[in-house]
Amino acid sequence: MLKIGITGGIGSGKSVVCRLFATLGAPVYDSDTRAKWVMAKDEQLRDELRAAFGPETFDTLGQLNRTYLARVAFADPVQLARLNALVHPAVGRDFAQWLTARQTEGHPYILKEAALLYESGAYRQLDQIITVFAPIAVRQARILTRDPHRTPDDIQNIIGKQMSEEEKMQRADHIIHNDDAHLLIPQVLKLHEQFIR
Ligand SMILES: CC(C)(COP(=O)(O)OP(=O)(O)OC[C@H]1O[C@@H](n2cnc3c(N)ncnc32)[C@H](O)[C@@H]1O)[C@@H](O)C(=O)NCCC(=O)NCCS
Ligand SMILES: Nc1ncnc2c1ncn2[C@@H]1O[C@H](COP(=O)(O)OP(=O)(O)OP(=O)(O)O)[C@@H](O)[C@H]1O
């Protein structure tokens, strides 16, 4: 079973591309969603987050205070590194379990979607990497529509915390262009055919 990573900066279109692969039958591990899930369920991680970032990390109902954590972590590289050091290993363990469950299901390949595949080192456990690329102006416009609570400055700040698109494209085995000039479906079909061969 091939293990394919799929990465790209905020708003590049990873989730949209993954939905296309999923319609072709490929199991997709969505690191962002799973990170949210482990932060909701893993008591040891929750204790560590509370110890690192204070009682405001969770609200009175025990839900992660994402606005607070985003403000703290995206404002300071040291705090972001602390958050990553707590969350990424927990996501890595969760992925390992998910992968074990897929091994016996007969899939030719699976996908792991993550914005920080290279930054977190997760790429080392994968066979091939796809980078989804869209120009910055297109990403900004799409994110402002998808996440109305973010300002252009917020988006620029998050982009500054991620590896450059140039480096991701250089390192990737495959690039999917998700701008207004390229159709997505033919690019996904072509890769799917390669992976099942
Ligand atoms: C800081 C948090 C609470 C902000 O939550 P919020 O709901 O505002 O944003 P959301 O999770 O939807 O992330 C929005 C986008 O920001 C980018 N992003 C998220 N975490 C990070 C990070 N640690 N470093 C750089 N970019 C990041 C991604 O492109 C992501 O899609 C949250 O992103 C978080 O817990 N991040 C740490 C876990 C992580 O690294 N997740 C990303 C993939 S594993
Ligand atoms: N080809 C496209 N045409 C129009 N809209 C698109 C296209 N690709 C993505 N979008 C939209 O752009 C937004 C960002 O896409 P998506 O959520 O897939 O990005 P992402 O790379 O997963 O982002 P993040 O890292 O923030 O999770 C979404 O609202 C999505 O519907």
From TrEMBL:
Belongs to the CoaE family. Catalyzes the phosphorylation of the 3'-hydroxyl group of dephosphocoenzyme A to form coenzyme A. It catalyses: 3'-dephospho-CoA + ATP = ADP + CoA + H(+). GO terms for cellular component: cytoplasm. This is Dephospho-CoA kinase. It is found in: Cytoplasm. Keywords: ATP-binding, Coenzyme A biosynthesis, Cytoplasm, Kinase, Nucleotide-binding, Transferase. It is an enzyme of class 2 (transferase). InterPro entries: Depp_CoAkinase, P-loop_NTPase. GO terms for biological process: coenzyme A biosynthetic process. The keyword Lyase does not apply. ATP binds at G11, S12, G13, K14, S15, V16. HAMAP family: Dephospho_CoA_kinase. One of its GO terms (molecular function) is dephospho-CoA kinase activity.
